[in-house]
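Take a sample.
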Amino acid sequence: MLWAVTVAVLLGLLAADFWLTRRPHDVPMREAVGWSVFYLALPMGFAAYVWLAHGVEAGVEFLTGYVVEKSLSVDNLFVFMLLLGAFAVPAQLAQRVLLYGIAGALVLRAGFIAVGAALISSGSWAFLLFGAILIGTAVKVLRGGESDVESMRTVRLLRRVMPVTSRYHGAKLTVRAGNGRSLTPMALVVGAVLLTDVVFAVDSVPAVYGVTSDPYLVFATNAFALLGLRALYFVLRNVLGQLRHLNHGLAVILAFIGGKLVLHWAHTVWPQVPDMPTWLSLAVILTTLVVVTVTSLLTKPARV
C-alpha cells in the first residue's frame, strides 16, 4: 500500500508539473523559491512520518539519504546548465527540458534500485562492489570528470536516425518537415539530458544504499531529491557558479560513503570490524557541505 500511494503521489506531482509548464515561460525568482520551499517541505513531512511510524533509525536513514541525494542532485544541475547553454535552449523552455530529465531519471533510478536490491540480497559482496564504484567516482569527480559531457554521443546518434531542424519549435520534440518528420533541437537536448541521467544513477543509487538497505527508502530519497530539481535550478543558476569547491565536497562525500560500504562488507565477514552508525554519516555529510559552501563563498575568483 505504501509503495502504491507513493507512486501515485509521485505521478500526480509530475503530471501537475507538466501541466504547469504547458505554457513556456522564464521562471521568476519568486515562483522558483515558492516551489523550492514546497518541495523541501514534502520530504521533511515525510521524514516526520517515517520517524513516528517506523522509528528513529528509519527516520535518520531517510534524512541522511535525502541529504546525500540532494547534494548529488546539485552536481546534476551543473551538467544541466552546460547542456542548456551548449544547445542554446531558450529561457522559457528550460523548465520543460528539466522536467523531461527528472521524469527519465525517476524511471532509471527505479530500475537501478531494483537491481541494487537484488545484488544486496544475493550476498554482502554487493556492498564491496558499491563501495568500489563510489570511491572510483570520487576520484573522477575530484579530477573534474563530471563536467565532461559525453552525452553529445547521443546527439550524433539522433542526427543519424532523423533529420534535425535548425530552430526550436516551442516544446515540440518533432515537427513535420517535407515528406516526413524531423527532430527539433529540443529532442537533442532531452536525449543528452537522459543519457547524463544514466551516469548519475550509477553514482547516486549505490550512495544511498550506503545509508540504508531498504529499497523503499532508497526510492523515496531519490524521488524527493529529484522532484525539486526544476525549481532549484532557477533558484541556484546564479549561485552555483560561486560554489567553486562543491566538486571537492561531493568527492569527499562519495569517498566517505564508499569507505562506509567497504567497512559494512568487512563487518559482515569479520564481526570485529566496526560498522559505522547512520547518525555519524549524516554528521560528516552535513559538515562537509557546510565547509565547502563557506570556503567557496570566502574564496575570491582568480583574476584572468
